[in-house]
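ok trying again, last paste got cut off:
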Amino acid sequence: MILFWTGVVLGFFFNIIANQCWELRARFLAHASAKKLVGKWRAYNLNGRTWETMLGAGDTVIRAEHWWSSNSNVLQVEGVDTSDGRHHSGPLVIDPVCHRKATRTLIYDFPTPDEVVEQRIVISHDFKTLYVFPILATIGLPAYSPTHVLRRGDD
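nice, full thing came through this time. structure:
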């Protein structure tokens, strides 16, 4: 009987250790995808199949958390509209199942903090282009730019 309970206790602890290892592996893989997006990005308007530089858009900067963090698939995004000096920031959350899809919440900080946009993002296969599709439910931004592209700025 002692062997049975010893096996149950050891199995329980090995199960906990295996789950923790699996969780850390998932966090590491999510961070590996997130790290590929870190850096400066430039905005371009889509005009048919051509890209045109988005006037009034400054560089967008993407930063990542540590890989062991529970939100290792969440990036912090900041940018400035050079046309009017408005800052925007918010999280970009990479889908844990498909690492080439993401959702971004864009919040303008200046002059009023109640301008919010949610965006769906498709990441190119080489992680150098982000295709940005705004979701129609926006607050305070009636003339928000439609679908556009963010391209890595170090090209």
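cool. The longest strand covers residues 39-47. Residues 2-152 form a domain with the Lipocalin fold (CATH 2.40.128).
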